[in-house]
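Lab meeting, action items carried over

1. Structure of the two-component assembly. Owner: GW. Status: complete.
Input record:
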Amino acid sequence: MQLPTIHESWRLERNATGLARQFSFESYSQTRRFLDALADLSEREGYYPNLNFNRTQVNVGIEADAKTLGSKEYGFAAQTDTLISDRLVDEGE
Amino acid sequence: MQLPTIHESWRLERNATGLARQFSFESYSQTRRFLDALADLSEREGYYPNLNFNRTQVNVGIEADAKTLGSKEYGFAAQTDTLISDRLVDEGE
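Predicted assembly:
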């Protein structure tokens, strides 16, 4: 099985049972637009990542339900990547 | 100077330079309603707390700009408290 391709700035965490990516924005309105889009994605997919944010930074954390990361987790990460358009500045790592 | 009164479930953090409170909800839609209200409050006040959340829990972190917590930080905490209505379940600690 091939896993969905995700952006290179995702980090593996906790012995490869989690994925995390930090997104940086220029303003709170950009941050909020991203969070709103991510909330819509969560509701569509029925998947709710751990989110940590302040005015201009958002950290998205995706944890494996099972012992290893699979297509569900990589798929959500890949869909999160697609939310970033050129209007949203991503400093990544 | 008297500081605004805040809910007893706020915790002092980092040698009393931060305030944190955890809110719990029954559903993601309640969580999201609270987050939206908090985002509106942030934009009105120009103050952006650290927020950490998943599907049904939100942790609000307020850090002091100066060395000690003052009316600005307590005021934001007190306003956050007012966002919780009877439609939003708050388990506190």
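2. GW to write a short summary for the group page. Key points so far: The first strand of chain B starts at residue 11 and ends at 13. The mean pLDDT of chain B is 89.
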